[in-house]
Amino acid sequence: MAKDYSTALGMAHSVSIRHGRLIDPASGIDRETDIHLAAGRVLAIGDAPAGFAPDQVIDAQGLIVCPGFIDLCARLREPGHEQKATIASETRAAAASGITTLCCPPDTLPVIDTPAVAQLVQQTAARLGHARVLPAGAVTQGLEGRRIAEMAALRQAGCPVLSQADRPIRNAQVQRRALEYAATFGLTVFLHPQDPDLSEGGCVHEGRVSARLGLPGIPEAAETVAVARDLALAEQTGARIHFRGLSTARGVAMLAEARRRGVPASGDVSLHQLFLTESDLADFDANCHLIPPLRTRADRDALRQALASGDLSAICSDHQPHDADAKLVPFTETAPGISALDTLLPLALRLVEEGVLDLAGAIERLTVGPAAILGLDLGRLAPGDPADLCIFDPEMTWVVTTETLVSQGHHTPFLGQTLRGRVVWTLLGGRVVFERPESRTR
Amino acid sequence: MSDPNSQLDAQGKLKHFLTIEGLNRGLLTEILDYAEGFLGVARQAVKKVPLCRGRVVANLFFENSTRTRTTFELAAKRLSADVLNLNISTSATAKGETLLDTLRNLEAMQVDMFVVRHAQSGAAHFIAAHAAPHVSVINAGDGRHAHPTQAMLDMFTIRRHKGDFSRLRVAIVGDILHSRVARSQMLALKALGVPDVRVIAPRTLMPAQVEEAFGVSAYHDLREGVRDADVVIMLRIQHERMNSALLPSEHEYFQLFGLTEKRLATARPDAIVMHPGPINRGVEMDSQVADGPRSVILEQVSNGIAVRMAVMSMCLGAQNLHTQGQGEFNG
């Protein structure tokens, strides 16, 4: 499934990464060792094979070497919304953030509901060569929730999963049929767990803060009603479903209960949900306009626990770059979403610092965790695996500013904060696709 | 994150008036005291004071409102300011101009103050955050969020009738969920030390967690809610709430939550009845109450001008030209 980027670039290339702390959660490796790459794949770990003469040697002393990160949901805005961002700008930001594989939702313009658009996105990304881009195909034509899309053709065209982006299917019968048809081809369906009627017009969590600020709320039940319906339909149809971005304690508990009964369902959490709550909305900060909304401290704590226990098996950026104008209107009219590729690693490391996960666990939820949801053999570093790697300095601090963000979108509630953890090198298919300029050549 | 007290300048003086949130009892009392001095202006033959002469106030109304706009206009004119009335809902935005473009254009006309009414919660904060540093912003109602001058004129009216806030029981009845007036009133009453603030509504018109959010008590029965109340504030019900999923009919609403002399009987004998207007007679209250001896509804309107004069002159820094609260403007 994984494209061979080294041959795409027209030459074989070999690299040795020396003296780094190699963490590969899939194989349980966590030790200081060398890793050798050739022809776009991992060749060996530890001693180099006899006679191996790498074209490039990277000294990773004091750094952590791990599989490149896999992001289940990152909007690239191309085609159709290039005033916000492009595949070029955002895959460059991904490379600078250690992310080697991105899954982009189908809410482009035109929608990714035909093989042609799916191929366009992949070809553009492959030509640029900064990151692997896997488009999620639309579940229904035009994301309109009425007629199902050509799912088999979309899979053939490289879509590993299907999604309605943030436009869930209202009609339960259409949802049922869509899940059945997807199950025919073993395709996983990503679901946005939010009932469209219960959330209509809402822009923040319905609770204390919405009461105080007079902002239309989205109740917890908007999530639990959607989760309940879709779990029941998954159980009925046998379709594999994935809840993309759960936000409530109850929603996560329902997923965990269904998983124990063997329902083929999984879930992830957007990283910002693990740090921010409704209280961060005070004073109408448009950078806290997020869908699903920031919820309560109790919800945040339950999401952290579910991530630690494995009921949520992936951390996602839910990257949504915007142009400046999108947030330069009164709060309710602002476009929801933030730029989150640049902050993915440092915020994941903050979870380690705060005792939610250990370092290998955090890396797991950024690598093999999401790879398993996508059904792909990525996110691990055994010999023969694609040589997608991230090499980062867990101690390097940096300040989030509009200058330090690589993404074209500059909206983040973490603006102005000093974060710890920075990517130094990113390798895709065995080739360096990002090297931090200030890193000394070792 | 911006400072919740962003309506105050570095000296702690009022710069914008966006919400009651974050304003302490001292400042609210200062506004009320200062407004007392302006009551006499209306009784003068020449109903003007020169406090804001040469200043330009723009009424930016993105949502129609004749009454509120008129009282702001009158307040500004009595302060001798020049007034621009812009009914934006029908002009600029219809031509595709953004809110910020509109602001920049008005700033280029050397406007000193924007009085803003907007359908979206947070619009006044947004405008204050993006206006030029010398411009003051007064929130004349933003979505469901705040209507702080209305709340202050209500406090002013309550104080004139009841004096001390610290022993009062105040009941607010009606569409609490959608009401910016109720939100600002709850905050103002609590800040001024009212120990018992009650909100009365069917559950469909009550915000989630209203008790925790505002420190008030929620009631769903009118008679129980107004029992022993010193002040009963009725809120306006929008017609579009009727025949929806929120309320079945005006008839049933009036049967359960409409104020009549009979239902008012459980309140204190000297209770006053208030309403921000305009009243839907026979829906929120019957005419007997609206025009009855306990109604102070028209007084609220007159007080509104004095309170708005106080807030406008304080925000424009004109307060320092005179000592406050001395009644020196009385003819």
From TrEMBL, chain A:
GO terms for molecular function: allantoinase activity; dihydroorotase activity; metal ion binding. One of its GO terms (cellular component) is cytoplasm. InterPro entries: Amidohydro_3, DHOase, DHOase/Allantoinase_Hydrolase, DHOase_cat, Metal-dep_hydrolase_composite, Metal_Hydrolase. Residues 336-434 form the Amidohydrolase domain. Pfam families: Amidohydro_3 (PF07969), DHOase (PF12890). Residues 64-244 form the Dihydroorotase catalytic domain. It comes from the Bacteria. One of its GO terms (biological process) is purine nucleobase catabolic process. Keywords: Pyrimidine biosynthesis, Zinc. SUPFAM superfamilies: Composite domain of metallo-dependent hydrolases (SSF51338), Metallo-dependent hydrolases (SSF51556). This is Dihydroorotase. It comes from Thiobaca trueperi.
TrEMBL record, chain B:
Residues 15-159 form the Aspartate/ornithine carbamoyltransferase carbamoyl-P binding domain. It catalyses: carbamoyl phosphate + L-aspartate = N-carbamoyl-L-aspartate + phosphate + H(+). One of its GO terms (molecular function) is aspartate carbamoyltransferase activity. L-aspartate binds at K95, R180, R236. One of its GO terms (biological process) is 'de novo' pyrimidine nucleobase biosynthetic process. Residues 168-314 form the Aspartate/ornithine carbamoyltransferase Asp/Orn-binding domain. Pfam families: OTCace, OTCace_N. Keywords: Pyrimidine biosynthesis, Transferase. Transmembrane segments: none annotated. It is an enzyme of class 2 (transferase). Carbamoyl phosphate binds at R67, T68, R117, H147, Q150, G277, P278. Pathway: Pyrimidine metabolism; UMP biosynthesis via de novo pathway; (S)-dihydroorotate from bicarbonate: step 2/3. GO terms for cellular component: cytosol. Its EC number is 2.1.3.2. Catalyzes the condensation of carbamoyl phosphate and aspartate to form carbamoyl aspartate and inorganic phosphate, the committed step in the de novo pyrimidine nucleotide biosynthesis pathway. Belongs to the aspartate/ornithine carbamoyltransferase superfamily. ATCase family. Heterododecamer (2C3:3R2) of six catalytic PyrB chains organized as two trimers (C3), and six regulatory PyrI chains organized as three dimers (R2). This is Aspartate carbamoyltransferase.
